[in-house]
Amino acid sequence: VWTSTGNVGQVRIEFSGNNGGNWQTVTSATGNIGSYAWSTPPVQTTEARIRLTEVTNASINAESPAPFNIFPPAPLNVRFLLEGSYTNAGMMTTLLNTGGLIPLTDPYEGQVKVATIPANVTDWVQLEFRNVHTPAVSGITQSLFLRNDGQVLAADGSTSQVVDISRITPGEYRLVVRHRNHLAAMSATTLTISVV
Fold it and tell me: Which of 7, 104, 140, 188 is deepest in the core (most CB within 10 A)?
């Protein structure tokens, strides 16, 4: 987010991961509207900076006043089994999936929508991180898929970067698992999330 004064036209936005030593172009030209949405590079740095320069007049420019931190999302491997879907073979059924009974929009907050349900999925689940010091306060939640072998999957069916840990403030948490036809369950042990 930025503000400008005077008559400033389109701006070029650049990113540096080494305190301005090198710059990468984020966009060569965008409207001077005060914000621009983009995904940060998958780097870890404590020396990130942003620079804006007017496209037609390079003498009009600004740089972030201080470096900021970027930490890429850390993967979190979560596995569990639902009793109601459990079979004697150590797996869960996929009857809801094969019967076309899993909705394309998550049934918890309706924020996650998919075009198709991934193969071998048992159903949607919701994970929540509750801080151990304030357990009555809801924490970060994320709707995901549960595969029939107990592996939690991202909405695209992948197992990488399922939960974006970078969204969670460092601390000690208990993991809460919700399913629409089961009681919620909370982990017995704590999960420590820290800045690397």
Answer: 140
Q: Are 65 and 51 in contact (CB under 8 A)?
A: no
| Amino acid in position 29 | A
CA angle centred on 78, ends 74 and 83, rounded to 5°: 165
Would you put residue 36 in left (φ > 0), alpha (ψ -120 to 50) or beta?
beta
pLDDT computed for residue 136 by the predictor: 79
From residue 134, alpha-carbon distances to 44, 50, 76 in Å are 29, 35, 22
